[in-house]
Amino acid sequence: MIDINRLLQRLCDADIDFVIVGGFAATLHGSSVELFERSWRVISLDDLIRAKEALGWEKDLLAAKELRAVREKQK
Fold it and tell me: Tens digit of pLDDT for each residue in 26-48?
């Protein structure tokens, strides 16, 4: 399995534009998006919630519910 830390560092080192989505993005929304002493683009919380709901899988719907709670705490 690819080490996500090394992968992200390599993408940045190569000046490749990318956006972090999915579970990793959800984790980042709970804290500063600065990671490994770098700044990252992360899918917006609202877009991530919509994406999780569109997938419709039980785990994604649960994650969307949790992310809505995170959004409410940020208001």
Answer: 777 765 576 667 777 778 889 98
Assigned domain for 12 exists = no
pLDDT value at 49 more than 90 = yes
Handedness of CA 75, 17, 59, 61 (dihedral sign): positive
Instruction: Find the domain containing 47 and state its range.
Output: 19-74
Total tally of structural domains belonging to the chain: 1
Q: Please report whether residue 7 resides in a domain.
A: no
Main-chain phi, psi angles of 52, to 5 degrees: -60, -40
